[in-house]
Write a structure and sequence with these properties.
Blueprint (H helix, E strand, L loop, with lengths): L29 E9 L3 H12 L1 H9 L7 E7 L1 H8 L13 E2 L4 E2 L6 E7 L2 H15 L3 E10 L21 H6 L12 E9 L2 H5 L3 H8 L19 H4 L2 E2 L5 E2 L2 E2 L2 E5 L4 E10 L2 H12 L15 E2 L3 E5 L2 H6 L1
Antiparallel strand pairs: 1-5, 1-6, 2-5, 3-4, 7-12, 7-13, 7-14, 8-9, 10-12, 11-12
Length: about 325
């Protein structure tokens, strides 16, 4: 899980971009994370292409039911089907999610060709849009993963900490999330990585609040940053702070949400990170799972097990419409 502010503003006009999808849409009370695998063959690809080209129409169909509570859907496309589906070369950094194996924990790679990030303050609208999507796709896809998330109190995760405190806001949001002149054919797009983490809450709750805060690197009550360790074991906050070769920090946008089924003992966090550069998220995960220095992994992983891992590219609306 990569924890990170929960507030943000809509992206302003940014370089010479294609119109972005709703990457920076406001946080909502409910969300669905749907990962699909596309069946082999031209017929399946044709069916997927038809649905995606009219995605905005499906969203309007559902949103018409309650204009005061908008519903949005952001779609990501995986590398396996990108070229066949779109007829374009891949974005510069798009490739399958790479498994990262540390001495104690592994960031697993799992199948996924399409990601749908559905958001609304009403859970029933999320449900309805997902239902319509799957009906439209029919036998052309199978479901690899499906998670319904919810906002937990004041945007906390199930570990009890405010999630998203390091998110970029204002002018920093598009700079951190949207591809620009470095890959002009895909300007306005975004890379996105998803992982489903499960937590052994009993073990986490057995720790003192001070021990939990040292692992996260923030105070539990108000999310204030704690001082970085001078050496040795680093906190989750420190390990997920990425500095590039230019010496500047590289942020990502986290839209994580808790999920769970208490009757089944299932408690989790669905990590979803949007970034202008895929390598930023990959470096975060490497620092978490391998450690910095190697061997000193992120201790949050002792209480958060990754069960999925998939990477996608979120194209601009122009590319979707061109399908």
């Amino acid at each position: 899980m990569i924890s990170g502010d929960s507030g943000r503003t809509a992206p302003p006009a940014h370089r010479a971009l294609g119109t972005p999808q709703g990457v920076g849409a406001p946080l909502t009370r409910s969300a669905v994370f749907l990962v699909l695998v596309v069946a082999d063959g031209d017929d399946a690809l044709g069916a997927v292409r038809e649905v995606l080209s009219d995605l905005a129409g499906l969203v309007k169909t559902v949103g018409f039911r309650d204009p005061q509570n908008p519903v949005s859907c952001t779609v990501g496309i995986g590398s396996r089907i990108w070229t066949e589906l779109t007829g374009r070369e891949r974005p510069a950094e798009l490739h399958p999610f790479r498994e990262i194996a540390g001495a104690a924990h592994t960031a697993v790679a799992t199948p996924g060709d399409l990601l749908f990030h559905i958001r609304s303050d009403r859970q029933d609208l999320c449900f309805e849009l997902e239902r319509l999507l799957l009906d439209a796709f029919g036998a052309s896809v199978t479901t690899a993963d499906e998670v319904s998330g919810f906002r937990y109190f004041d945007t906390r995760d199930l570990l009890g900490f405010v999630d998203g405190t390091a998110n970029p806001v204002g002018a920093e949001l598009p700079e951190s999330t949207l591809v620009g002149d470095e890959d002009p054919a895909f300007a306005g797009g975004s890379y996105v990585v998803v992982q489903k983490y499960l937590h052994p809450l009993a073990a986490w709750r057995a720790l003192t609040t001070e021990q939990q805060e040292q692992i996260i690197g923030r105070t539990k009550a108000d999310g204030v940053e704690l001082d970085d360790a001078a050496e040795g074991q680093k906190s989750h906050k420190t390990l997920t702070t990425i500095t590039g070769d230019d010496g500047g920090e590289h942020d990502i946008l986290r839209d994580n949400m808790p999920f769970g089924r208490p009757g089944h003992g299932e408690f989790g966090t669905y990590f979803i990170g949007y970034s202008r550069h895929l390598w930023v998220i990959e470096r975060m995960l490497e620092r978490m799972f391998v450690g910095d220095p190697p061997g000193l992994h992120d201790r949050i992983l002792d209480f958060s097990t990754a069960h999925t891992g998939t990477a996608f590219f979120v194209p601009s609306t122009a590319i979707l419409d061109a399908l």
